[in-house]
Hints:
With 158 residues, the chain is of the alpha+beta class. It has helices at residues 25-35, 45-57, 98-109, 123-131, and strands spanning 11-15, 61-67, 70-78, 83-89, 114-119, 135-141, 148-154. It has one domain (11-154): Aminopeptidase (3-Layer(aba) Sandwich), CATH 3.40.630.30. The chain has four helices and seven strands, in the order βααβββαβαββ. The model is unreliable at 1-8 (pLDDT under 50).
Amino acid sequence: MxxxxxxxxxxxxxxxxxxxxxxxxxxxxxxxxxxxxxxxxDARRAWFxxxxxxxxxxxxVTAGAFDGAELLGFVTIDPAAGYLDQLAVAPSAKGKGxxxxxxxxxxxxxPREVVLDVNADNTRAVAFYLREGFAKxxxxxxxxxxxxxxxxxxxxxx
Length: 158
């Protein structure tokens, strides 16, 4: 299995337990509010918590990146399918390699493939995934927002 380097010794990434899942909602709202301020993500908080819990019941896991007790970001992936459903970083932690660390954890959990859908207008996220070795694999529409999405896929080098 490929190894991906860490960015910082102080930051640790670990799998969250079920009781911690509702606690990531505030970070999710703040991250999305910054990325797409035209959408009311506070109104979607309950939906998000329910979605995350449902994903876990079906086998997904969520890993959080922590600096001490502070949650800096999280990633949710289904290791069997390789589908990355959520990756969010606290606005104050952006640009510090947290998304890279979380993506590496997703790759560790699903080493054969990672697939995700990203809002096509979220240029920062699209650029990040392309820099991380993802390739465009399709397009679609987000059923909640009606916005165009891109399907991106990462596979390890042969």
